[in-house]
Each structure stands twice: as C-alpha cells, then as structure tokens.
C-alpha cells in the first residue's frame, strides 16, 4: 500500500481510484463493509481509502479526552492487510476545513484525486460546517463525473458497529466484545520505551509503551498476544500486560507494561503490537512488594491458561 499525504504528490497511476471515505478509527467491521463496497463498485480500479489527519474531532473538540482507538501508523497497517492500494491521508488543515461541500467534491475528489467512485457510510457529512451529506455527494458526483455509494450500517447482535461501541467495551474491560465489533483484537502499537526498570527488579521485566493520544482501556491486568514487529526477536509471543498508572509506585501517567512469557532479550527501541485478549483484574495497590509479586505470578498463570489455545 502506498500512502499519499498531499494532493500535489498524486501520481498519474493513482487517478481513477474507487475510494472509501471516512476516519476509519479502529478499522472495525463497519469500516471494512465500506471498503468492500468501494472495491465492488469499480472492479479493477485502484482501491483507495481517503482519510484525514489529525482526526477532525481532535481539531474541533480539543478539550475531549483522548478517544482514538488507533494512531495513523496502526490504521495504515490494518488497511494494508485489507488489500488497500492507496491511502490518501490528507492534512485536515485550514484550507480543507474551509471548503464548501461543492468545493470539496470538486477540488479534492475530482480535480485533486480524480476519483472514479466514492463510497461512504450512510451518515457521512462533509464540507465546512458538515453541511454536505450523502445526497449532496451523489448530486456532485453526477455533475462532476464520479459514482457514489452509501454503504449500509453494519450491525452485530442488534448493536450498531461503531467506534463509540468499541470504546465503551474497552472502558468496561470487555476486550473480547470489542474484538467482535472490530473483527480483530484491539491492539496498542508503538515503540518500546525506557522506563524505571522496576519490573526487572521484581523478576518480571516489561516492555513499556506510551498510551498518549489513545483511548484508555479499563486500567488493570490483561492476558495479551504480542507481535514483536522489528529487531532480532521479531515474532509472536504470549504475555500479561498492566494498563494504568501504577498506584503501587505513586506514578500518575498511564502507560502499558507488557511481560512476555518465556522470553529473554532486549526489546528497547523495537516496535510492538499488543493485543488485549482478556481482562484479568483491576489495577490495585498492595500491602508490600511481596504481595504484589505473588499476585503477578497468579496473573501470569491465569493468562497462560487463557492464551494456550491462541498462540
């Protein structure tokens, strides 16, 4: 998959694409339905996803707590696995925000990207003040020479598949329910950072990763699957991870610390992808380090049992 971050970078072979348009936070089953609808709308055409960075909600509601399920890198990796040829990741800047719906259709979709077909969800809104909807897009497409399709909403067990429903499941410590809506495990991706190395002193060396900019799952301990994406130890491992603020040690910023089972090696500066499989217990403060270590052994035993058929 090739990524384009400015209209001025568009090569000739990217024109004539069939594009799914939206934010695609989490790349859940509803997003996949939009992408597959776009693929079917113009067989043989390059398959593209058109999205925006930063997420518009981050621009218009900066006071909101972090809400994103995935950062740009994770989203791109997931889209590539779905067979997307082009990711048009355009900057959500003053120019783009100021375009009327008609100007967006003409300057971005037609003149800028030369789309053959545009597919959206049924509640898609676009243009300054979110003034345009799917009926407007269809009208502009007829005038400007590109086709349009509004993919239907996706439901699962009577529940609408949405990023909001997935965030709710994660907030409540239900990662398997989130995975059903996503169509894959919810993953936290990123580089391994240097920490306080307390886990090593306790006999549980952990790979520490930031949660900055991401929706925070329920704080506590999880059974996890871990893909080491780079470095000498690249591969898949099982483990247990602690998500939270480490109340035992008085820290106050949230991160994720992952202990890989049966692993020996240095993971600093490598990239990991940590999949939350099951919530084991809430984060808590213990009466002494010995009690903490005993609980960590119990957590790992439970996680191994849960993961034995998944590795």
TrEMBL record:
Q: Which keywords has UniProt assigned to this entry?
A: ATP-binding, FAD, Flavoprotein, FMN, Kinase, Multifunctional enzyme, Nucleotide-binding, Nucleotidyltransferase, Transferase
Please list the reactions this protein catalyses.
FMN + ATP + H(+) = FAD + diphosphate; riboflavin + ATP = FMN + ADP + H(+)
Q: What is this enzyme's EC? A: 2.7.1.26, 2.7.7.2
What pathway is this protein said to act in by its record? Cofactor biosynthesis; FAD biosynthesis; FAD from FMN: step 1/1; Cofactor biosynthesis; FMN biosynthesis; FMN from riboflavin (ATP route): step 1/1
Residues of the signal peptide? none
Top-level taxon in the UniProt lineage: Bacteria
Protein family according to the UniProt entry:
Belongs to the ribF family.
Q: Would you tell me the protein name for this molecule? A: Riboflavin biosynthesis protein
């Amino acid at each position: 998959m090739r990524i384009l971050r400015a209209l001025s970078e568009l090569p000739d072979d990217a024109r004539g694409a069939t594009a799914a348009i939206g934010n695609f936070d989490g790349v859940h089953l509803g997003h996949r339905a939009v992408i597959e609808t776009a693929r079917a709308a113009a067989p043989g055409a390059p398959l593209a996803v058109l999205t925006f960075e930063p997420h518009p909600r981050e621009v218009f509601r900066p006071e909101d707590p972090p809400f994103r399920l995935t950062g740009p890198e994770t989203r791109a990796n997931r889209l590539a696995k779905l067979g997307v040829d082009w990711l048009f990741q355009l900057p959500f800047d003053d120019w783009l925000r100021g375009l009327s719906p008609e100007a967006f259709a003409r300057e971005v979709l037609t003149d800028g990207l030369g789309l053959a077909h545009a597919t959206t969800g049924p509640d898609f809104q676009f243009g300054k003040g979110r003034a345009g909807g799917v009926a407007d897009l269809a009208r502009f497409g007829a005038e400007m020479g590109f086709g349009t399709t509004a993919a239907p909403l996706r439901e699962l067990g009577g529940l609408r598949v949405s990023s909001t429903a997935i965030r709710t499941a994660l907030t409540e410590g239900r990662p398997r329910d989130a995975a059903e809506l996503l169509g894959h495990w919810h993953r936290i991706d990123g580089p391994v950072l240097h920490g306080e190395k307390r886990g090593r002193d306790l006999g549980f060396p952990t790979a520490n990763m930031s949660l900055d900019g991401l929706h925070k799952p329920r704080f506590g301990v999880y059974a996890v699957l871990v893909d080491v994406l780079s470095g000498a130890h690249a591969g898949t491992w099982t483990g247990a991870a602690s998500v939270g603020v480490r109340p035992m040690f008085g820290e106050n910023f949230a991160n994720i610390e992952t202990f890989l089972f049966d692993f020996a090696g240095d993971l600093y500066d490598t990239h990991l992808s940590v999949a939350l499989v099951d919530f084991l217990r809430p984060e808590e403060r213990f009466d002494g380090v010995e009690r903490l270590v005993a609980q960590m052994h119990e957590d790992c035993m439970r996680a191994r049992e849960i993961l034995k058929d998944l590795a």
